[in-house]
Design brief:
The protein is mainly alpha-helical and 254 residues long. The chain is built from 11 helices and 4 strands; from the N terminus they run αβββαβααααααααα. It folds into 2 domains: 102 residues, no CATH class; 129 residues, no CATH class. Strand 1 and strand 2 form a beta hairpin. Helix 5 packs across helix 11.
Amino acid sequence: MQDNRKPLTENENLILFSEVEGICPLCAKSLIYSKGGRQYKIFEGAHIYPLNPSTHEISLLKDEEKLSEDVNDINNYIALCRDCHRKFDNPRTVAEYRKLLSIKKQFIARNENRKQYSNYQIEYEIKAILTTLASDIDWILEPETLNLDAIKVDEKANGTLSRLTKRKIKSDVAEYYLFIKEQFTELDKTNGDTFETIATQVKAFYMVLKKAGHTQEDIYQNLSEWLSKKTENSSLEACKIVISFFVQNCEVFS
């Protein structure tokens, strides 16, 4: 049987390692270990669709989705620890194939979204709000803040938003909406139309994600990560609170 193997380049290995964020996506084992002051990789680029499929594998996967017709395309690779790679290949099953394909598709979609981050700016002034939210300050919130009705979240959420995320958004709105609104008011006093500018920027990136066909769950997660990355890796939890504010305020899920 002809071997179609094409060795991965150093850059391709780096892409695969970064894609899984240094953790085997199947067993959560670290893909790097240290010894003698040096770092060593313990992962391999696994072909999702087999490199040299047997007659049985061709029949087994004949109706399954492929991410590339070229088995050596980077989209047909995923970084796995050596143990998981061996288990995945021997024997190959449809269930495991679909599982890895689904994981890889999520990585591909995430990478495509991240490429957009640099194209959509966010006013740096919002960093002050994120820093306050992430601090240990015990704010004195007005009673009505804690009872704010998050009805707009119920009205706008569809079946693509998980129940847990919907609950978190509603909780964040109830607790922080008026507080964040007050913070924006204070920013506007010193920096003009800061709120309108930031709201427009959030809305613009939301529309890009929506137009691309992403689920509400993916949109919420991507907006939160985008906000964190664009503000020097601000607390992701603080960013989720701010995105929840914009859900209630109608810039997101409108």
